[in-house]
Write a structure and sequence with these properties.
It is a single chain. The chain has 21 helices and 2 strands. It is mainly alpha-helical and about 450 residues long. It has a domain of about 110 residues: Orthogonal Bundle (Cytochrome p450-Terp, domain 2), CATH 1.10.230. α10 packs parallel to α11, α10 runs antiparallel to α20 and α14 crosses α20. The longest helix is centred in the middle third of the chain and has 29 residues. Bound molecules: acetyl coenzyme *A (ACO) and oxaloacetate ion. Acetyl coenzyme *A binds next to loops.
Amino acid sequence: MSLFASTLRRAAAKTSTKAFSTSTSSLFEVLKEQVPARQEALKKLKAEHGNKILGEVTVDQCLGGARDVKCMLWETSLLDAEEGIRFRGYTIPELQKLLPTAVEGGEPLPEGLIWLLLTGEIPSKAQADSLTAEFHARSKLPDHVKAVLCDLPKNMHPMTQFSIAIMAMQTDSIFARKYQEGIHKSTYWHHTYDDMLNVIARIPEIAATIYRNSYFDECLDMQYDSSVDYAANFARLLGYNDPHFDELMRLYLVIHSDHEGGNASAHTTHLVGSTLADPYLSVAAGLNALAGPLHGLANQEVLGWIMDLDEEFKSKNLDVNKETITQFAWDTLNSGKVIPGYGHAVLRKTDPRYSCQREFALKHMPEDRLFKIVETIYQVMPGVLTEHGKTKNPYPNVDSHSGVLLHHYGLTQKNYYTVLFGVSRAMGVLSQLFWDRALGLPLERPKSVTSEWIVNHFKK
Ligand SMILES: CC(=O)SCCNC(=O)CCNC(=O)[C@H](O)C(C)(C)COP(=O)(O)OP(=O)(O)OC[C@H]1O[C@@H](n2cnc3c(N)ncnc32)[C@H](O)[C@@H]1OP(=O)(O)O
Ligand SMILES: O=C([O-])CC(=O)C(=O)O
């Protein structure tokens, strides 16, 4: 757990008679209790440390995408270059042990993860179930959103459709309506809370409508099942009814949710939200960032790369093995392209999200042909990229593995994969957006300079 998180916990414990939720408290009750304590803790942090230095910024960082510049508050998760992500202080293996599950010994429920991201506390199974019920109760899509989706060209990229649908749903933003009515800023978080839960509740049906409409020409007849958890219902909406796929969906939605604040989708959501644009506008902006090939879209690119590799050597009657993969990797690099699914802006070791997907594959589909190719790629690619000598991290990231798992269960439409990533990412970025408004974080506006300014600055 980060020092700041533990400071906040201690502050919460001091300022509240019942600082931690009992196993039956509702999410809103828990947060209502936490907000004043966390506001106080942030005030104290500013008073005690406000004018101290967190780091310096070099010209390289200014020109190089602000790597490692510490200039954003993000409470829900923290990334370590070697160890990978911790959600509110917990690693993925810890969450697999601690969070409530749908089946004995199974994968964690995304509802439990959302509770943790928002409150910093591991929920009871009853609390996770209460959140499942809350999402089902809030899930009804406005009719016009369905109509918009059904009218979009089927060949429009699924991420473009996703963003359009969320923008269309912005008509329902309670935050935007209340703001227009002239509410007091101390109440922003109440309306952000409602918008956040409504968006998370409704995006499975949006995402599934995009899938069914784009690939099966079915738009209106969705099989919503409120008797099961969030991920299993999402699987039903997509058209899947396999307990192992449900488990994959639970794991997938948990691990893709949050990756501290600096990644492009999180940062964009946070930036747009800082203008007091409502959660719908903010998360749609974040999804547009996720749709870039250097970010979330890399999962689509990875499966494409594997398929191209397979095709190339099949057509030459050659096996896909260490040698042929190495040759294909060099062809990719020599044609000025990146190896999708490898490298990372922060990580310097294998992404733990890759490792837990690998564990899932070893448990459920060890003989899958594409999984075996991914395993062989993992054996050779770090060596190839090290020899290439450019990337600071020659190891795989989360996107390197997700496609083959989905493909195994029949979800083979790779252009759709980033939508699944987006359903999960919305959980993380909206949880932080809730705290942005609850803590009263200001408009984000870093300083930019011209190259001329930099030259002149060093002449002085
Ligand atoms: C959910 C996620 O967003 S995870 C990331 C998903 N994206 C990918 O998998 C795409 C492939 N990977 C990459 O393009 C990069 O590693 C990124 C975008 C993820 C990180 O970028 P950076 O922080 O700039 O990486 P880094 O500092 O290591 O880059 C140095 C050089 O190595 C190159 N490099 C980095 N990764 C790779 C790679 N996988 N293949 C080939 N070259 C690479 C960069 O393009 C850069 O080249 P340049 O000097 O010619 O511009
Ligand atoms: O952290 C990053 O820059 C990219 C990433 O892995 C994510 O957003 O999940």
